[in-house]
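Changelog entry: the 2-oxoadipate dioxygenase/decarboxylase record was regenerated in this release. Current contents:
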Amino acid sequence: MYGAEVPAYHTLVEVSSEVNRGVVAADGDAERLGSLDRVTAERHGAIRVGNAAELAQVADLFAAFGMFGVGYYDLREAASPVPVVSTAFRPIEPEELARNPFRVFTSMLAVADRRFFSDDLAHRVTRFLDARELFDPALIATARRIAAHGACPSADARDFVAAAVSAFALSRDPIDRGWYDELSAVSAVAADIAGVRSTHINHLTPRVLDIDALQQQMTARGITMIDHIQGPPRTDGPQVLLRQTSFRALAEPRRFREPDGSVVDGTLRVRFGEVEQRGVALTPLGRERYDAAMAGPDPAAEWDAHFPTTDAELAASGLAYYHGGDPARPVVYEDFLPASAAGIFRSNLDGDSATAEGADHTDYSRDWMAATIGHHIHDPYHLYEKAASS
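Regenerated structure tokens:
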């Protein structure tokens, strides 16, 4: 479905598969971070919703697939602020991730944050969101039933998956030009969330074993990539955490309703093609080192001052997670980096507004999110600790 909507996605998948096969053929140790089959099949999707009720429905929907909220990301606090708070829905057991290596990074609009939304605009956005229905109530009821039972008959599963997929199809309904433009003045992401009456897949991300080679090959095919790979630099030592890049958001045909009621053809640039390379998960101490390394003007030049160059040293220093403490068995980082996510968002936009002056008086915390959606938000470190003990 997404490839039909964003044809360049097919090129991204094709190049990712070529790169992965080449890396495995050239490096006998390449599959230590995941088998070729798993890495090639792996995806993370991204969606955006408007309020807590919609986020709760998303949590119920993905629970039916054995996917649960992991991590809390406040992109309002990133260097390139975006008015959303996020979590990622994914399997939480290593064997489940091996079977279903799929994540959905899900962002919710922070309408109550007056640094972005005035009282008047927040009231109108809230009214707009309350009036729309993103998901068929019957779909969510089925999801809850499947999650409660832990299974369903295969024929029912096919119908359920088809209905779930269709809920994220790009709507062809005309967009109110005035409303969309008003929200765009606050944030292009806000317009993408609350400027339309449906949600959609914002990006669908393959995993690659060499993101630098991917960047070069996509460019060689005439695909315009963002300027810089997000996340840690390429190093001679073990790759850690997550590196991400994407092709630039493309102009997609959309229909607009003008103030005079007429409907005209136009374009929007909001969806982009992201790809990622995953490395070993860092411990809290390792994350402190990572933050220190990334704080400098040239992280690549300072990297070796913060991190050793071998897995054995990373393990011995308590900087990264390894199964059973064995440096030959790294625990893969399965989550996301707020700064990279915000950087990808912003690098694909023509422009965005900075936050207004003042303090944040909202309570968009992880505890608030968990209570609001009625599902536990797992701490990634707890999951990595558990994996490392195996």
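The first helix runs from residue 2 to 5.
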